[in-house]
Amino acid sequence: MREALKEAKKAFEKNEVPVGAVIVKDSKIIARGHNLRETKQDALSHAEIICIHRACKKLANWRLEGCTMYVTLYPCEMCIGAIKQSRINMVYYGAKDDKIESYDDNITTYYENKECSEILKDFFKKLRRK
């Protein structure tokens, strides 16, 4: 989760919603990603989607069986769909999103991490001040 948080900090520095993700296979990080929706002006540029793209490219396979994703915020419905389609086995997330009802997806596990929640709070505080 520390590595996903590093990605979230990169997003924060770019004035993106600070969400970061990493994918691990055989105890090694094979892909990283952070939100880039504002930077790319692309609704699909969520941390999880970027990370999945990179992992597929690294493994030269769209099936990410045997992989685990760590993401700083509970994935949205689109990302849950992509995670399921790519066959990632497990997702650990560090902060809950009160606006999103958790899905009965059997693959996500809450891995409470105060830093994941704090970076989001700090970002939106900063945004409101502008």
> By helix and strand content, what is the structural category?
alpha/beta
Termini gap = 30 Å
Q: List how many beta strands DSSP finds.
A: 5
Number of helices: 5
Oligomer: single chain
* Major sheet summary line: 5 strands, mixed
| Share of β-strand residues | 15-25%
Radius of gyration (Å) = 14 Å
Q: Can you tag this structure with a few keywords?
A:
19% strand, five-stranded mixed beta sheet, 130 residues, globular, alpha/beta, single chain, 5 strands
Task: Please describe what this structure looks like.
The chain has 130 residues and is of the alpha/beta class. The termini are far apart. The model has no long low-confidence stretch (mean pLDDT 93).
In brief:
The chain has 130 residues and is α/β, with parallel strands linked by helices. The chain is 42% helix and 19% strand. β3, α4 (77-85) and β4 form a beta-alpha-beta unit.
Give a topology summary.
Layout: H1 2-13, E1 20-25, E2 28-34, H2 37-40, H3 47-59, E3 67-71, H4 77-85, E4 90-93, E5 108-110, H5 114-129
Parallel strand pairs: 3-4, 4-5
Antiparallel strand pairs: 1-2, 1-3
